[in-house]
Amino acid sequence: MRWIDVFCLQRGEKCKPEEPFLHYGLAPDWSPDGKLIAFAWDPNSNIQGQRKDSIFIMKPDGSGQPENISSSLEDCRNPDWSPDGTRIVFSCKYDIYLSNADGSGKINLTGGISQDPSEPWRPEDFQPSWDPNGTRIAFLSQRDHLGLYVGDLDKPLSNALYTMDIDGSNIKRITLDNRIGITWYSWIITPIKSNP
What are the boundaries of each domain within the chain? Predict the structure, then answer.
């Protein structure tokens, strides 16, 4: 992971220092106050994305030792800070987890909806993102067997977009078309219009 001063680039200046190396890792996310960065990292390898990553937080200057907030969980990705900076939501293996910023109070929000050993596959819930108000969490999932026909496990699964309350309840599917697999999404803040 590296940082770069985009304002320096916009002014057409040579940035100093140029892209200083911070740490190995994936999917960095700044805390709202800019004092910490959450990211995915496998401390036993400098090759990331090998399904052994955990979620860490570190200082933005790269100093100090990164702190593991996902404990013994592996295959963790996509940390996202709550708007107030007190909690982090992230995915590990098949589920979405919520943790306090210091790693305490960790809970599994989606709970692994298909844990039956006779089930030939297990849907993934992944890529969580807080809404700007901090009241809902969006995520991608294969939980509705989209694009999968019984007995045809070679057929790719389609991801749909869902939202849930921050305690994991009230899960709602947002995208309705089974033919379209969602890969990326983003929240937008829409001002509320007041009546004159």
Answer: 23-173
